[in-house]
Amino acid sequence: ILQALLADRFKLTLGHETKDLPVYVLVVAKNGPKLHESAYKPPEKSPDGTSPAPGEGPRGGRIGFGRGELTATDINLRMFADTLSRVVGRIVVDKTGLTGKYDFTLKWTPDETEGAMIPGVREPGPEGPVSAPSDSTGSSIFTAVQEQLGLKLEAHKEPTDVLVVQRVERHSEN
After folding, report:
1. Predicted TM-score of the model (pTM)
2. 133-165 pLDDT, tens per residue?
3. What is the distance between the alpha carbons of residues 36 and 51, in angstroms, rounded to a whole number?
4. Helices and strands in the chain, H and E counts
5. Rounded distance, CA 61 to CA 63, Å?
């Protein structure tokens, strides 16, 4: 609906292009993954008595996070990569080859810019960056992913689909 409104009001025309962009690739680290399969089991029956569709359930596929901590319940690594993208400020592509669903908690020491990228996390104010946790000797997100999960984020350039504005006009008065 929004796209149709923008096209109508501003004559907005969009297209797609593939460009080589810097990304992080999530791979299995040298010593192998340290992940544990999810203990979550979907209910056999929904509250209304029907069987839920595969992958549905009241708790399946949840990620909760705050500054310097991420808790995952019953998620696949593609969902984790999408979440990491917001934390590191760059697209993260899952190339682990791991297809299971996992439960884990990841803890790291965030940098000053991180809060701005995570919805629900307080951004820096006029007094400066949000203060980091008192343990300022902690791990970066990159080190934490490797040490705690047995995965690794590697910098690469990958062909990426990009949305391109091809045409837009100034809106005329009604």
Report:
1. 0.70
2. 434 447 899 999 999 999 999 999 999 999 898
3. 27
4. 3, 7
5. 7
